[in-house]
Write a structure and sequence with these properties.
D-amino Acid Aminotransferase, Chain A, domain 1, 29% strand, globular, 360 residues, eight-stranded antiparallel sheet, nine-stranded mixed sheet, amino-acid biosynthesis, alpha+beta
């Protein structure tokens, strides 16, 4: 199936001066561009009504299915402006494939990969002036899909709205890469076998917010969850995958199953042999982590995701105490991997993996 996302220009786009003022300090997820890409699916007719239209609110009936049964999914990705002014995406096909996996799990219609990519590229082309330049700035892209049939009944919606919005994003670490503290949750879990942990749906994030608030009360930036059955195997953070660097040169991350298959997570697994590291995916117990920090068998820990790329972890905390990671500072391996990924994304390093896709 081919969907065309033709542009319907906004009658009132922001002026150059206002846009440039925003791009000078965009923050994250606070301001949105002039347009959005949309498409509609119905059980009777399939996909249609696709276009790039002026950014604006949806009119939702109070009985819209998503408001009652949370049937929705989303993605997160970025467009990068390189030094020569060109604009590129990083592994958008992986986001498209994961979007389809999430849709299947939430009983939503799967959007073809080609249509997903077309919607992203059409929106970026329409709002290319919004892609910032310099530092680690980017245009954050948020594709999402939700059930909007007007019906109070527990079944798959027969009408679905797809949309992509975009927001300029500043450097995540504007003052330099800084290690964060992580709270180990003992009371809450984020996913269970057979659940939605491997899908990117809003309910997973809503379920993490109370634990995240608990982490904030303890002076921590994020929360680390353990598995839902034995409460002994590390899972992932509230919104990021986690990695351990060992003293024998392994880069260890929890295996897939109940965790999200992160695009950045996968890139790191493929990239680390080039930096002399051995990638390992397996179950990792919390006790192994704490013992490893004590003995020095684990030298660094970091989290990864689209927004921050790689975030060093300087300390773990729980009700029993605090556990410093290495020296407490960002480690050499962590910073090296982070720089390697950024260099590929911004075109400063040859992309030997075919990960980047030029738009303009």
């Amino acid at each position: 199936m081919t969907l065309k996302f033709d542009l319907q220009p906004s009658p009132a786009p922001r002026g150059d001066a206002e846009r440039e003022a925003i791009l000078a300090d965009p923050g994250f997820g606070q301001v949105f561009t002039d347009h959005m890409a949309v498409a509609t699916w119905t059980a009777a007719d399939g996909w249609g009504d696709s276009a790039v239209v002026p950014y604006g609110p949806f009119a939702l009936d109070p009985a819209s299915a998503v408001l009652h049964y949370a049937q929705e999914i989303f993605e997160g990705m970025k467009a990068y402006r390189r030094a020569d002014g060109s604009i590129w995406l990083f592994r958008p096909e992986k986001n498209a494939e994961r979007f389809a996996v999430s849709a299947h799990r939430l009983a939503l219609p799967e959007l073809p990969v080609e249509a997903f990519l077309e919607s992203i590229e059409a929106l970026v082309e329409a709002d290319e002036a919004w892609v910032p330049s310099g530092g680690e700035t980017s245009l954050y892209l948020r594709p999402f899909m939700f059930a909007n049939e007007v019906f109070l009944g527990v079944r798959s919606s027969r009408r679905v709205q797809y949309c992509v919005i975009a927001s300029p994003a500043g450097s995540y670490f504007s003052g330099g890469v800084a290690p964060v503290s992580i709270w180990i949750s003992r009371d809450y879990t984020r996913a269970a076998p057979g659940g939605t942990g491997a899908a990117k749906c809003g309910g997973n994030y809503a379920a993490s917010l109370l634990a995240q608030a608990e982490a904030a009360e303890q002076g921590c930036s994020q929360v680390l969850f353990t598995d839902a059955i034995e409460r002994k195997w590390i899972d992932e953070l509230g919104g990021m995958n986690v990695y351990l660097v060992t003293s024998n040169g392994e880069l260890v991350t929890p295996e897939l199953g109940t965790i999200l298959e992160g695009v950045t997570r996968d890139a790191i697994l493929q990239l680390c042999p080039e930096l002399g590291l051995t990638p390992v995916e397996r179950r990792v117990s919390l006790q192994e982590v704490l013992n490893g920090l004590k003995t020095g068998a684990i030298t660094e820990i970091f989290a990864c995701g689209t927004a921050a790329v790689i975030t060093p972890i300087g300390e773990l905390k729980d009700v029993d105490g605090q556990y410093r990671v290495g020296s407490g500072e960002a480690g050499e391996v962590t910073l090296g991997l982070r720089q390697a990924l950024l260099d590929i994304q911004y075109g400063r390093r040859e992309d030997t993996h075919g990960w980047t896709r030029r738009i303009r």
